[in-house]
Amino acid sequence: MSGKRLCISVLLLVTTLGASAVAQDEKNEVGGMLGRIFISDQGITGATYFNPTIHSGKGITFDVEYARRFIVAPIYSLSGEVLFAYNPDEDLNAGMTGNAVVPTNYKELFITPAARVNLFPTTAVSPWVSFGAGFGHISQSSALVFGGNNNPGTSSTSAAVEMGVGLDVKVFKKLSFRGGLRDFWAGEPNFPLAPTGKTRQHNFFVGAGAFWRF
C-alpha cells in the first residue's frame, strides 16, 4: 500500500472512530413532534339508521420523547425510548338527529416505552424503526353528537403496542429534525350505543419535530 493510500485509510479510520466517540458521549435525547392521528372509519354493528359508520377526525397530536442510547456503532445504534402522545380533541360523527350514538369527541393519551434502532447513527441522515408497548387512555365527552342525551360511554384504559418508522436529519451540532409515522394499536373507545364488533383500533400518528442530543 502506498504512503498516500495509507494516510487516507488512517484518516478515514480516525474520522470514523472520532464520530463514534462523539456519538457515545451524546447518549441522551429529548424532543417532540407535532402531527395528526388518523383512524379508519368503522361500521356500527346492527345499525338500521342513516350514517351507520363512525367517522373520526384527524386530531392534532403532541408527541414528547425521551431516549437513551445503549449501543452506538457506525452501522446502527440501539436506544431505549419513552413516548408520550396526546390527542386532545378527536372529533366524531355517526348516526343522525334522533339517533345520536357517539360522543362529540374524545381525548387520547398513549405512554409507551420502546426500543429504537437507527441506521448510520453517526451520519447526518439516519432512518429508524421503533417497537414498544405501554398503555392508552381514552376520555370521552359527556355529550352526544346532534345534541343527543348524555353519553353513556365511559373512559377506558388498555394495553397499547407502538410500531414506528422515521428519519432523523442533523441540522446543527446536537440539534436534529425528526419525521415519523407511529401506530399506537390500542383498545377501542367504549361506545355502548355504537358497537363495532371490534376490540382494538389503529391510531396512526404522522408528525415532524426536533430533538436535542446531550
Q: How would you describe this structure to a colleague?
A:
- The structure is a single chain.
- The protein has 214 residues and is mainly beta.
- It has one helix at residues 3-25, and strands at 28-38, 42-43, 53-56, 60-72, 76-93, 95-96, 99-100, 105-119, 125-140, 156-172, 175-187, 200-213.
- An eight-stranded antiparallel beta barrel has the order 1-4-5-8-9-10-11-12. A two-stranded antiparallel sheet has the order 6-7.
- The longest helix is centred in the first third of the chain and has 23 residues, at 3-25.
- The protein is elongated and about 60 Å long.
How many structural units, i.e. domains? 1
Mean pLDDT: 91
Structural class: mainly beta
| Estimated radius of gyration | 23 Å
User: Would you report the number of β strands?
Assistant: 12
Discrete helix count: 1
Largest sheet data: 8 strands, antiparallel, barrel
Poorly predicted tracts of residues: 6-24
Spatial order of strands in the largest sheet: 1-4-5-8-9-10-11-12
Q: How would the global form be characterised?
A: elongated
Query: In percent, how much strand structure appears in the residues?
Result: over 45%
CATH class: Mainly Beta
User: If you consult CATH, what is the topology?
Assistant: Porin
Helix content: 10-25%
CA distance, first residue to last residue? 40 Å
CATH architecture: Beta Barrel
